[in-house]
Amino acid sequence: IVEKDRFQTLGDLRKQWTESGVETSRATVYRRVQEMGYRCRIPQVKPLLNQKRRQKRQTWATEMQHWTVAQWSKREMPKCLKSSVKYPQSVMVWGAMSAAVSAASYQEILEHFMLPSAEKLYGDEDFIFQHDLAPAHSAKTTGKWFTDHGITVLNWPANSPDLNPIENLWDIVKRKLRDARPNTLDELKAAIEASWASITPQQCHRLIASMPHRIEAVISAKGFPTKY
User: Fold this and answer.
1) Where do the H-state alpha helices sit in the chain?
2) Which H helix or E strand runs over 74?
3) What does the pLDDT look like over 154-168, one tens digit per residue?
4) Coiled-coil intervals in this record (predicted)?
């Protein structure tokens, strides 16, 4: 059973054994699996990459492999919060990655949050904005918005969260939220803002400094997903 499907859980195995007339506990299933030489592991979830996307990732990484940490530090990473009225109650969070918003809504967020953030961070200096290929990001109207505002957008390969350190930043925020247990939308917003504010510049710098290593990893993996 295990050899046919490595992704089955102990619960799945126990259910199949029970259906075949073998009554046993989860602990017993675990011991028997261990005795057979198998080990329980949580599989890493990686985006599905076909050959075309792997090639694009590898090409992109090859083009970017000479970028320095200082250059990666000039990527804009703004933030804002957007309430959701859907059940269950939740808060959409945006910070150089898109929530489920339309192109028009995304451009409003860029106008009211990204531009002031960029002004504060860079003043009159040029910077490069990075976002993924979400529909709101890749819309023609969004492209025109960036052109009209004279902002350079970094070319980005599809299905590549391992190349984006902001994903690791969101993971840090989520880990910090586990003990917060907010009960209302206002409490959730406050907890997210507090978690974000607690992230140190050193943590951000370490993530940005990892970009050359991520680039090397993609090239070495020939475009396949990496450990990042």
Assistant:
1) 10-19, 26-35, 51-64, 69-72, 103-109, 115-122, 135-138, 140-148, 166-177, 185-197, 201-209, 211-220
2) none
3) 888 888 888 888 888
4) none
